[in-house]
Amino acid sequence: MSAQDIILSSGTSKLAPAAQVRKKLSKVAKLFDATKCNGCKACQVSCSEWNDLRAPIGEFTGSYQNPADLSSECWTLMKFNEVIDEKDKLRWQFTHTACMHCDDPACLTACSTKDAIVQHANGIVDFDSDKCIGCGYCVTACPFDVPKLDSVDQKAYKCTMCSDRLQVGLEPSCVKSCTTGALKFGTREDMLFIADLRIKQLREKGFTKAGLYNPQGVGGTGMMMILHDIDDPQSYGLPGDPKTSLPIKLWQDVVKPLGAVGIIATVAVACLHRITVGRNIVDESVDETDEPAELDHTQASKSDKE
Amino acid sequence: MDRRQFFKLCGCGATTSAISALGLMPGTAMAAPREYKLLKAKETRNNCCYCSVGCGLLMYSHGSNGKNAEKAIFHIEGDADHPVNRGSLCPKGAGLVDYVNSPNRNHFPEVREPGTNEWQRISWNEAFGRIARLMKDDRDANFIEKNSDGNTVNRWLTTGMMTSSAQPNEGAFITHKFARSLGLVAIDTIARN
Amino acid sequence: MTNHWIDIKNSNVVVIMGGNAAEAHPVGFGWVTEAMEHNGAKLVVVDPRFTRSAALADCYAPLRSGTDIAFLLGLSRYLIDTKQVNYDYVKAYTNASYIVRDDFEFNEGLFSGFDEKSRTYDKETWYYELDDQGYAKIDESLNHPRCVWNLLKQHVERYDFETVSNITGTPVEDYEKVCALIGSTYTHDKAATFMYALGWTHHTKGTQNIRSMAMVQLLLGNIGVLGGGVNALRGHSNVQGATDMGLLCQALPGYLKLPSDKDTSLQTYLDHHTPKALRPGQTNYWSNYPKFFISQMKSFWGENATAENSFGYDWLPKWDKQYDFTKHIDMMYHGEVNGYFIQGVNAINSMPNRNKTLAAFSKLKFMVVMDPLATETSVFWQNNSEFNDVDPSQIQTQVFRLPTTLFAEEEGCIVNSGRWMQWHWKGANAPGESKPDAEILSGILMKLRELYKEEGGVLPEPIQAVNWNYHNPHFPHGSEVAKELNGIDLKTGKQLDSFSQLKDDGSTACGCWIYSGSWTEEGNMMARRDNSDPSGKGITPGWAFSWPANRRVLYNRASCDVNGKPWDPKRTIVEWKHGKWHGIDQGDFNMKLTPQESAHPFIMQPEGVGRFFALDHLAEGPFPEHYEPMESPIGTNPLHPKVISNPAVRMLDGVAETLGSHKEFPYVCTTYCVTEHFNFWTTHCRLAAISMPETFVEIDEVLAAAKGINNGDWIQVSSKRGSLKIKALVTKRLQPLKVNGQLVHTVGLPRHGGYNALTRKNSSCNILTTEVGDANTQVPEFKAFLVNIAKAEEI
After folding, report:
1. Which of A5, A232, A280, C649 is the most exposed place for a label (fewest CB within 10 A)?
2. CATH class in words for A3-244
3. Does residue B13 form part of some domain?
4. Is the CB of residue C37 less than 8 Å away from at least one CB of chain A?
């Protein structure tokens, strides 16, 4: 993959677009079929194994769900919910919880750091931790509550759809390990086709409310989910109608360009000033006093963890 | 408002984006996925050691397999050629690398002396010698050559063995020959529980 | 497994009962989802708990733990009553038409011949009526009142829906659904498979649980066919191999028998174990017993086994009683054992009745622990607060802890549940000075040889005679031993192709006859990796080696009728065409015989047919019967109140006193594994510890409310044998069941509690369990015992 495979990038705007896509790539997707999942956690563990993540060993949380939530050291998590269905039968619902790879990613829109969050031409939303400044905008912006800040390096992390595996032609680690075939991977077109067939099969089997979770409020997702009951995504721990929210949109599409315009104007004024007035000596001591304070903050948070 | 304050006001979140928007950042910066971690790693085929589905594994180790570098397994995933698991693994299998590299592996022969509260490291030679001594003393003292009817029974009941069901057949057969040649009857496997 | 993992995809109805494949064999369960998606299969799950297998089931039925026999005999009754029986199959391939002795009886829970004092049966009457030639008498019309078919009908008659529901607690409505689904496979074009595991063996009538199911499969004609079978999902990766290798107190490799005191000479022994055919024209494969045994002795003792010394027969130890681990730990407890080897087993956590095991180990003079991990067993003498409350200074056991390699650090063969012998390769060296088990035992043996040579001693001959003729006697290489297991022609020095070449005159050596063919002159057949499946039925003859004879589906002669025509053309395994047998798998019969000559698919039986009536082979009866667990939550047996639990169970002295009553301990406790962990091994793996960091106890909402217990509260669980503190998981997945007029609650306790690992410190569930076990195998009743619970303070 290269910069030319990137179709969206954080910290850019229409005034300053990301590199152009030279190759047409099909968008890819992961399809999670909740009706075939048995909650074994193979996806969860193989995600951590492949990505070299080791969350702290926690404690019993009152369910089979461990760790309690996603974190910078846990990018895929099985959620467990006991639900009584419309036929008054118990249904133990398992949700493969990881980044949804939205088509219109709120995290990317909210991020102000150039190229820290990108969307590849194949639709994958990826974080570049070298560039992340740890502001946490993506964390608050995500309607699925997926990205998490790391307590040590203060950067945001989430599922990359194993972009390192994808670039050498392999499926994501979670998909490879899935024991029941509840996770599938392929082009979005193929996944939609498979989902369609499966939902028809489920309806014939009596799951009349079965449907595909591919919320349009975020432009559709690169991880789609077949649910027993599409009317009740909340019972799987999923938001009913997730959106790339308005303030974030405003920020990216209106305020930031304005800021840029402001800066361009400032620089222009500065240049003018230089030309017309000449050089000014700037006292940098204020900056120097600012810096140690920030260092202290990092150290304090580190020792908190230890 | 002086010039510095003006910059601060305009800056904040927009600083980096705006400066890069002017093309002031180096052009090479791009979001690149992490390097594929198995490049040049050595691949070895194996089978999962946990349950009896017998899933095929691909184990990856560092080291060129040359004489001067010790191989170390750092990643294990399912073998997609294997007709039973076709690449998949359960969560236990997916986490096998942490079994191989568990901090709780035993490294050296050790002995705990009667009544003490600690381990002492010993050599293999010492371990073999001391265990053989204890066995021989017990066997010679308690071996039953004939039963009350006078028939040859050649059994040794005062020592027994709980045998492994994870070691390969070859080790298991060696275990069986070892036990029966000594006259052990009370051997058992975890097959019973 | 009679069949194998991939074959599950050919099923029409998959029954998971006495097991929990989705959690304990997740990848194998993948083939269930395959059958559901591509073969329209239905999944039936019967379990006291709503498990992760149940989560995907088309039909889930709860039952009270320990009542599977009632459930299955009721199913048999339903099949017979509704005529959902594969009559062609039953008449041709089972002993339905065989006539039983007229002094055989069953009354009030007891079969004929019971001796109350010794808790054993005189099984003489549990046999066929024989004619002058010693053949069993049969009545093909099935009219004879004492033919097996009529005795079976009579035996299961009592198990009507209401009776079954009253015992099992399964609501009649759910039970009917299960019966109808399974019954639908009686036709020739449908098959059901049963997947079971420790959920059936961990009972005082475990063997009969499995037999009850096998009888259902015979009624339906589901054995020997694609998508059918009797499928034990074995536990450990090589527990199948360990069993094949005879690592049991009364066994030799290849399912041969360790001689007993009664087998006073080689000839007596061979006569005893070589059966005579019970019908004319039988294959009666065990008639080859002497060939298997003598070849094994040649492998054991090498040149030291000669015709003159009865091939070393006298050197084999003889047993006078069953010294399984329960018995041996009991002997330890009574101070009768000095030394114990523990190889790759976390015994202190895994054995029943932990407090007794701990006391027993503390009386040993020496213990040798061989393990890759620092288990709780190796430090049983170390104090660990309430988790192991001992005083090291009071424990005089000398403990050796020897580091072993694990799978990734050694090569060799392990056998999966489908009997596939798969070869694996070494990926790295083990840490520190770890050695493979074979090398450690060889090291000890070489020292013993030295000592016996120097000092003499009792019976040194077998120690010197045992064939250790390996390249390096200190380290027998895997390939050398694998070749030894396959067998060799001692005259030509060539590897054997098959067990059909074995001789009983000492001219062949073979460690394990069923493995013959696994390493031939052509090389290591276990290392083969051709995964092609030419028939599309999941049979991959070029992948590894499936014992016996690379056969993938056992009893496959039963997939076609007496004339060799497949019952279902879509399920053809073997077929007689144009005067010859053809097939996609190795025939499990002599393929040189005509269909009529080979029309006895169960070739290991002297009568060649499947047995509804098990003759004298099991301890508690030729038919299964419902007995309550040793600790019954209802304190009676609704069928026969005088015989409550299995009458033939072995009761060691003092053990009866350790059993509790339902008055003091009202709840049924059952122990099990969860997907995230493999017994205690994975408690040492960080990734597994993260995914399940702590053990818990599962209780239903009704019981929780009655006891004022909230989700996550600490509770005390106690049995007559001990008690432990643990956090509660209050769940809808457990439901109280209505049994014999009362509500029975089940308490579920995962068996992953350890205190010396990466997971949170927890007590082992085996503080609570009882050592009383199955009357045949002595497998303890880990799945159904009684406890009480109460709210507790945090640890």
Report:
1. A280
2. alpha beta
3. no
4. yes
